[in-house]
Amino acid sequence: MATSYAPRSGLGTGALALPTTTLWLVGTTVLALLAIYFIGIDQGAVSIFGSDMHVHEFVHDGRHFLGFPCH
Mean of the pLDDT values across residues 24-34? Predict the structure, then answer.
């Protein structure tokens, strides 16, 4: 009997279930939209936090690095 030296992972082909895939897709989309809002849109004047500029100042340099104008 010949010995096989092919590596085995021990895992099956396990396809992702549709609810799991949908949950990951929705979660990733929500996080991406929040990141785009806070980095690209939140200006202080049109902020969901009112005229508080803390979020704007926190991501200010990142905005310019990513090409979003802010002043």
Answer: 94
